[in-house]
Amino acid sequence: MNPVFVFLGAGAEQAPLIEHATNVLGMTTLAVDGSPQAVGLRQATRPLVSDICNPSQIVEHLKGQDVSGCIAHCIDVSQRSAHAVAQTFDLPANPLKAIECATSKVKLKGELLAHDVPVARAVSFTSADDLKTVERKCAELTYPLLVKPSDSSASRGVSVVNTAAQLEAAFSHALSFSRNQEGLVEEFFQGELYSVEMLAWSSTPRVLALSRCEKFPGTLVNSRIVVSTSWASEVEQRIAQLGQRAAEAIGLRLGPAHAEVIWDSSRDRCILVEIAARGGGVGIFNQCLKEFYGPAVFDVVLSQALQPRFRNSDLPSADNWVQRLQGRPGHSSAEITFPSAESKTKMSSGVERPPPVIRYS
Q: Is this model's pTM higher than 0.90 or not?
């Protein structure tokens, strides 16, 4: 039986890496997704429709297979399943604690506070809490507040609350997007939103790019993102360092990481919003970083996830990653825009968005 490399998630964000592994590197690939329409299923050697959020079910599917590697690429919901597969088949993986923090905003907040990483003041809630309990927990917070699910991404289930009268609707909305029926209420921190794109190797997260995100008025979703491999200003350096500190704080040692940071120029302060054990979506990792650094960025992500006995000289190791970067293309910045404000607003409701337009310079 040929060794098989497993992808947990096969949507539009995962398809480029699946295609690279299958057609460029010649791997035998198994792509798993809960939707039979997932575009990445067609890129794999073998497709499988299954619940990627169910670790035991995924492990059961893989029994008897010679699994060479497993990855949850640019996706949060299957990170725990990928970790379970790694543990079962003795594959490289981040520590379970890091995965738990990266997929639970409540656990993440506690870990960041324990490591003195600046974050917004917040309280947590669950479906077992009644409205008065939530209101009492929020009494010491300053409005406006941000109410969000603990385990969702892409602004799904997020509301801005200006008065206590709006809490109940926001509370219910957040829980409707939470698999764990858990949420977070935090003070709304005004400022410019940045993301820090990282790749960890040799147990150390390294910053590859920063992005600055602009928003449509009244929405929580990005409308324009400027991605760059250079950060010369003091503020940008501080933002990059904060993202790196957060990744180190939760113990991310392997693979891509994506941190979101808000910079408030009026108070000369930045805070960590969240960090994920994956690359940035909406074209940041799959398109921009591949354009900046070349296909080696895909190669090294796949190499890191391989069981050591399956690695070969065609794939770069973590140790020679820096050497592979020397031949990167000349582009060092990109602007990502979206077709319309309407399409981005729909995206937050779970409707598929049109592809972004990317211009390099």
A: no
